[in-house]
Predict the 3D structure of the following.
Amino acid sequence: MIVQIKIDKVQLARIQAKFGSLGNLLWLQKPIRDSAWYMYHSIIQNFEQEGRPEKWATWNPAYRQYRIKVGEPAGKILQLAGRLIPKDSSGKGRISRVYAKALINSITKPRPHGFGWHISAGTNVIYAAVHHYGSGKQNIPARPYMMFQISDIEVIERMFQAHINRIIA
């Protein structure tokens, strides 16, 4: 993702007069923090809306029937408790309990870091990549959730531009 902020020479001179060298970016801490939280909430919306801008593939009919058979509700994709049946080296399946809500709860939240903000987004859930990219081998369709919308980039650019306009006014 690339966010572009345009600063003309007059604005640059005002910023440098007020804050010194642009190497000291503490003056950008507020829009960095605000944009980090905005990106975090955008990822959470991907889960809530079950895919944006395009909806995720629905559960295949066999899996839906399996969920009904074992008494699990057929609610939102990637957000309910479920069962994965991986095959071991002998080719036999084994049932292991997986709490899919762990995926949405594992998304890294923005946090203060030194004099700035840590703004990475990620997850340490072992099966996260399979759900994001899909797996033909395991017959799991891609359901990309770690993504931003074009409109998100525009909003973040406006956040930075508004901040810059406020401080040089």
